[in-house]
Amino acid sequence: MSEKSRVALIFGAAAALAGGGLYYFFKVYQPKQEHGVAAKEIEAWEERLGQVRLCLLGPSPASSHSGEALAVRELAPDVWDRASCTKLIGKLSRGVADDTGMIKVEHAWMTVDRAAAKVATAFASHVDPSGDAPDKRSKDSPLPAALDELDTARAQLREAAGMDPPTTPGPAALPVAEMIRLADGSDPVGSLTAWLIPSAGGTLGFGSVKGKGEVQLTLVAGAAPNIGKLGAGSVRAVPDLAWGAAGLRAQVSIGTIDVHGAFGQMVDLPVEFGARVVMAVGGFGNGLVAYAASNQLVVARSQNGPFAADKPIDVGRIAFSMDPTGRGLVAWAGPTDEGPLRGFIAKDGTPPKIVELGAGSAAQACLTPTKAWVGGEDQFIAFDDAGATPHVLPEHELVGCSTEGALLHKYGSTHYAVCAETCRIADLTRPPAHQRRHRRRRQGPRDPCARPGARGVDRGQAAAVLRHRTGRDPDARVLQRQGDRRAGRDRGSRRGRSPAAVIRYSPIGSATVASVLPRSGV
Description:
Blueprint: H1 3-57, H2 66-74, H3 82-89, H4 103-127, H5 143-160, E1 179-181, E2 183-184, E3 187-188, E4 191-195, E5 203-209, E6 213-219, E7 226-230, E8 234-236, E9 238-239, E10 243-247, E11 251-257, E12 263-270, E13 276-283, E14 286-293, E15 296-303, E16 308-309, E17 313-314, E18 318-323, E19 327-332, E20 341-346, E21 355-358, E22 364-367, E23 372-376, E24 379-384, E25 387-392, E26 396-401, E27 406-410, E28 415-419, E29 423-427, H6 433-443, E30 463-465, E31 494-495, E32 501-508, E33 511-518
Parallel strand pairs: 9-13, 30-32
Antiparallel strand pairs: 1-30, 2-3, 4-5, 4-31, 5-6, 6-7, 8-10, 10-11, 11-12, 13-14, 14-15, 15-16, 15-17, 18-19, 19-20, 20-21, 22-23, 23-24, 24-25, 26-27, 27-28, 28-29, 32-33
């Protein structure tokens, strides 16, 4: 190799090394530094976003979709501190920052700022829409959509900065509604005839298997339906389903019940003009049965001995409930429905303490772990053995009780009242208009189950669905005059003879909310 060639090779190698160094610096090292600076800024902003999510959605969001998580959070008695959330949301914008020099990142930050401004405006509207209380709001809240838009902007920002997709606590989404076939062995439950408003531990329903008699359904969230055969007019006790009581024409029979629904060891208490059992709790050797007969409420108790009836109580309308965990409640108005409201909670054969509930209507009832809720029309009352607390809520119905409190729905609206020691209004965003129209076409103009004696709209098998219903039930009465001969056929707080009713049964947070619709509403 000549001297010139050797010199050219040396300079060529030097140029290549210099070029490689420049390429590494401008194409690898510098972009990494810029992306690192951008990532640090994004992570600092995400810390502020995390504080907003904690304030709005709680420490354990029910869904990674912010709109869904917000809806569930709204159904908790204790939601957020408005002032604290407002301050945190005010810090959601990017703020003063150096230009990263990356066009995609800068554009993504502009999208984030627009979305953050929408969240701030939407939150102000959500908590105080133009000075109107949430139950007076005429439009859907914009907050769920604004939060979802901010989530999308955040994902785009991380992608522009070369970062991994964001991780959000909580399940990917709320679980899809599950259709559960109700059957006694291989025999499908063909109709639901009555049901109780759900309590914290679940709910009870009553139906029939074609050609094989009546059944009682014990429905608990997360567990398989428990379906037990019944004799005519019978109710199995809670939590021990191996005994119960039956209201017959001339007596109330209390005894053990086998898997076929037949009574074994039994005690008969005489009645006139028939009776209807409304509650059976505890064990057969230490239990309580309440039944209505001839405009009177009778409590029969057993404490290591045979059941014996206490002195009858003159009553008008009665509301009652049984929680599968083993408690029951009964509340009643005076014989003319104008007297004072009274009630008690029972779990065994101990003499129940009757509590004065004040004025009100005994139309609906359910149980939280510590309280009983009863009411209707304009007032709902929470009580325990220590006393009662009234809550005035015009035009509401009691949907059910959870482990945290009670959930009420305002007729004909998306407004709910979530109650514990106090009540607050929660407004759930409705589905898009085209979905609402589609649902109305499938359900028809009215709910046949809401009318006594209405015919079913389909003849399918009964099924349980993990959802909850909104809408007014114009026949939310529990028990009419005890002399009503039809009372013996109605065990629950909502009535109907649809052979195709379905139970919509929904855990909302720790709540258990259920109601019944005709099959066409599924």
